[in-house]
Amino acid sequence: MTAGFSRRSMMAMGAGLGVAVLTGGAALAAARPRPAKPLLLAHRGCSALRPEHTLASYAKAIADGADFVEPDLVATKDGVLVARHENNIAETTDVAAHPEFAARKAVKVIDGEKLEGWFTEDFTLAELKTLRAKERLGALRPESMGYDGQFQIVTFEEVIDFVAAEAAARGRTIGIIPEIKHSTYFNGIGLPVEDMFLARVKASRVLATMPMIVQSFEIANLKRLRTMLAGMANIQLMQLIDDDAQRPADVAAVDGALTYGAMLTPAGLAEIAGYADWVAPATRRIIPLGADGRLGAPTSLVADAHKAGLLVGTWTFRPENTFLAGDFRDQGDARASNPEGSVREIRRYLATGLDGFFTDDPALGYRALHVSR
Description:
By secondary structure, this protein is of the alpha/beta class. The strands form 4 sheets. Strands 7-2-1-13 form a 4-stranded parallel β-sheet, covered by helices on one side. β9, α10 and β10 form a beta-alpha-beta unit. The longest helix has 15 residues. The two termini are 23 Å apart.
């Protein structure tokens, strides 16, 4: 078992879920014990060093101590969930180099944003398997870019099997933290991603026990999953939070007024606690940057969420100088990786009382948690 996470603690956190469904949000504060140490969540695997959402990225993350690895889930034309951060695969695969797919380049509006590229829903799984992954940030991450063209797109089922095999080989518990992407969009084009997800969960012996936290920026799908997964003590739900003025895609689709900012008020957090176990805003919502680009004073968000009975995660710590707060940058190139600065930044955030955090480099997250100063 990894320090700060055990099967026993995960089962204890999940044990109250059925009670919460029956008795409402008032029971939730008592139903969600906090982990002994914050959970180390591998953002798209070890995406700082390997092309994201590949088995190589997940393997590196697990080797470096991650408690959970993250497969973002999108749908194929033939109804299979695959691990990609977005359904637009122009930046993360070599699809542009495949002349047989040139005619499938398209312009689409996804969650209100106009995008041009190639989209997973226009490809069968067999076609996607002919592509190879590449580093999304290019030369910013030269080590990862060195693996361009080597690894295939993997299905949700393949990720599950791989993580289970790694857990068995290493003799420790490893969980998965899938994000269901663009639910309203996919459901609108006849690809019900929640149904695909639920079918895979129900069919999998591994997922009957593997710790799992299901994430979404939308609300309706989490509420549905809360009901459909009731009784599965190994599964929790995480409400992701975007910029204050933005609305969840399912809210915007019906011209609702609810914003992410409103969701982080005491009343909003209490509402989230009625259907989710975690709330996860971006890092700067927990400790914002000042005008000088350095960290300011922490907000009350972590304390407010704990008071509502929620666990608190955050996204995402990245090791390059360009992503760090000014406090932690070194004198190197803005694009250069700065491991020491990243560790120090993570520790500053951990001091706010976080229960889990996403990082692109789990080895640095592990150091922040476990290696003495």
